[in-house]
Amino acid sequence: MRLPPPPASPRQKKSIGTRCETSLHRELKFSYAGVGRTEVDVAGFVADGVNAKGEIIEIQTGSFGPLKLKAKELAAQGKLRIIHPIIISKYIEVFDSDGKRQYRRKSPRRGSPWDLFNALIYAPELPLIRGLTIELVLADVSEQRVRDGKGSWRRKGISIRDRQLIAVHERIRLKKAADYLRFIPFSRGEQFTSANLGEKAGISADMARKVLYVLSRTGVVEKTGKQRNLYLYRAIL
Fold first, then answer.
1. Residue 16 lies in a domain
2. What is the widest separation between alpha-carbon atoms in the chain?
3. Model confidence over 185-208: pLDDT tens digits?
């Protein structure tokens, strides 16, 4: 097996996309645009697509920070759906400089819907934009890497060439602030700390703090006091 050619770069106009469109991004774009259009000028930006119902589609694989302005402008023109892939399992394929595959392995890291907050932490009020839906696509992905000496020192010079979709396990749509209560495993009015959330949800302390920061900014939870050196929260929706 040999390394496939690099994906073509998309046209950009006041857009926040990646330097070069991956196969993962492209496949999701065409899947969600359907029989509609892709790479569409909307309010001076390039949206990834507009489906047959007129819904604006934006694929965002990384941080939501760059979407702060773009999402507001796009949503002002019509309904907007941001598609955010969550990599549940990743299979890494490493190729030599001639394009011949050397090996394939499965990454030990597994993703989860909680990874959304790694992206939202940089735009915590994004879910409040009227007409916006965030859709999580929980998927398995293949990542192609090449030994070209140009990659990160952490990967010993190995570059990431492309990412491809293997399978989709689940899709989670978050249309309104109340939909984010799925991330709060406590009864309404019940007080809890970030430590309580981390323990009950099985997530790290750092992730629990990110979740509560974002959800407090969106009005899903509020601070009610302190318990020793930790803030107390409760769901308010």
1. no
2. 61
3. 999 889 999 999 999 999 999 999
Give the pLDDT score at 2.
54
Strands 101-106 and 80-95: antiparallel
Torsion sign over Cα 147, 19, 60, 169: negative
Q: In degrees to the nearest 10, what's the CA dihedral of 162, 166, 167, 172?
A: 0
Considering only CA atoms, which of 104, 81, 102 is closest in space to residue 164? 104
Element spanning 67, H or E: helix 67-75
- Report d(CA 157, CA 151) in Å as an integer: 4
Closest CA relative to residue 56, chosen from 81, 29, 36 = 81
Q: How many domains are there within the chain?
A: 2
Task: Provide the token pair at 40.
Answer: 């569409």
What is the pLDDT at residue 157?
A: 76
What confidence score (pLDDT) does residue 164 get?
A: 96
Q: Is the pLDDT of residue 44 over 90?
A: yes
The DSSP letter of residue 179 is G
* Structural domain includes residue 63: yes
Q: Which uninterrupted H or E stretch holds 215?
A: helix 205-217
Given a contact cutoff of 8 angstroms between Cβ atoms, the answer to whether 82 and 60 are in contact is: yes
Assigned token pair, 39? 């790479």
Distances in Å between the Cα of 221 and the Cα atoms of 113, 155, 181, 189, 236 are 19, 40, 9, 10, 5
Q: Residues 154, 212: one domain?
A: no
Q: Cβ contacts of residue 134 below 8 Å, gap of 6+?
A: 81, 82, 84, 116, 126, 127, 173, 174
